[in-house]
Amino acid sequence: MAAQAGTFIRTGHDEVDELIPLIRDFLVNDSLDVVIDGRKIRGYRAPDARSIWIRDLSDMLRAVKYFEMDLKSAVEHFADTQAANGRIFDYYTTFPEKLPSERENWTKYVRVPVEAGVEYRFVKAAYLVWQATGDDAWIRGLLPSLERALHYVRTHPWRWDEGTGLVKRPYTIDTWDFAYTAGAHDWLQFQIDERTYWGIMHGDNSGYYEAFRIMQRLYSLFGDKPAAQKWAERAGAIKTKLNRVCWNGRFYTHFVKLTPVTIPGVAEDRQLSLSCPMAINRGAADHARAVSILREYRERRRTGASFSEWFSIDPPFPDGVFGDEKLAAGAYVNGGIFPLVGGELARAALEHGFEEYGIDILRRYFALVAPRRESYLWYFPDGTPSSAEASTSPEASPTDGWGSSAMLYALMEGLAGIEDRDRLFRRVRLSPRWPAAGIKQARVRAEYAASQASFEYRYAWDGQTINFDLLAPDSQVDCHIMMPPGSLPVSVRVDGRDTSFREAWVERSLYVDLTAESKKDSVIQIILEKRP
Predict the structure, then answer these.
(1) What's the CATH fold of domain 8-415?
(2) Per 3-state DSSP, what percentage of the chain is helix, strand, and coil (rounded to 5)?
(3) What is the pTM of this model?
(4) Strand (E) or helix (H) holding 91
(5) What distance in Å separates the CA atoms of residue 180 and residue 483, rounded to the nearest whole number?
(6) What is the Cα–Cα distance from 341 to 360, expressed in whole angstroms?
(7) What is the pLDDT of residues 78-101, one digit of tens each?
(8) Where are the domains positioned within the chain?
(9) What integer is the mean pLDDT of 140-146?
(10) Alpha helices, DSSP H only, in 370-413?
(11) In angstroms, rounded to a whole number, what is the distance separating the alpha carbons of residues 282 and 28?
(12) What DSSP element (H or E) covers 187?
């Protein structure tokens, strides 16, 4: 980590201001250094194992990028160890994992065969590193590896279903790494064999949609229009097919079966799984679908018995049907409550007109973790935190960087509203939603430690005027600014000059949209009047 974090929020409200330092402390404890072939590699671990998984890392980078100097080495090692056919390892480690039976500190690489989502996470991780470092030469050098990874997924018979034109996988619980076998295997099944039950899991395909869009953006940046067009077409196709095959009218069906199988006691038409809010944030779900998903979560919070609606899956599978008695209903990924899901849900809610709901999630998370400064990967529905004894994983440390980083992602991009749409904050979408939190003054700074690029603003609302002081040299700022309840915008001035703007309604929330060029110290002023 950098010696001093340059990223902060100051509002005078502890549940907002203290989240960043709290989550930063979790991440400090989740950093993991390994030495492989004489080279030091720094990554970040989930709280259940001392290993660097691309799955966890790609999500955690959304928060790690604000604090960490060495962002490249872990992603580079995944690229350096890529198979000739394009496959990426799930994880690597030099630490014994299954104590006391495993004691060797050898270098271990693992690809779980049933996993179908590894390659899109590799693309996303590389993209986030590029955004924070601004190293065009680095990402250009990685493009062949990104191409090979996505070619593997789109051509390998274990990964691609020609009939639907979508990514397939064995019957797992959402994105997790063990498959249903109807009792044919004596424990968790990580392998693919002649008895594998195949199907389409929506989260894989929303992830590849986002990865294809990333490829489109990168090729556009480097002036390769044919390649950019190719990836744009692929992104459009997978999004269309995902929404045709997996959408059930209210949310995404957990698993659309290609191999017929029935699991007794499973209400498949009601199973709401953890990748649903992720589909919103990846852009695969349009606004109407996002609203439907968010309403489903709110309703289940209202009617359910769990302390939170951040389900891994709801309703869960019957106890032990995936091969381990620890996977009882309500445990781990079989119905456990994940802050990871809560963070994704908060980000989606803040973006799609459910601002108070998103803020409520952030406040509930702060209330959950702040008293003891502990955050767990998952909780039982009654609020009991996970433990190594209750999980199939070797550890359960109280410094969950995976879920907490999702909460910071929602806080910074959703509530504070700083979203980098290029690299080094050269183009920013500014969409603060302070009125929904009842906050009238804020100072916010987002800084990438690796490059020290930053974007900062001061916000003030006095009842008649909203003022933004931007400290963002040479940034194009696409503003999407939430209006206080009962207020209408009369005029907008940028650096003292009247500027055209548009009113935009997101559900019942009114926003002002405009584009401004920030030249170090710009001022945006919005004059308000009361709604009639």
Answers:
(1) Glycosyltransferase (1.50.10)
(2) 35, 25, 40
(3) 0.97
(4) strand 91-93
(5) 49
(6) 14
(7) 999 999 999 999 999 999 887 788
(8) 8-415, 427-530
(9) 98
(10) 401-409
(11) 27
(12) none
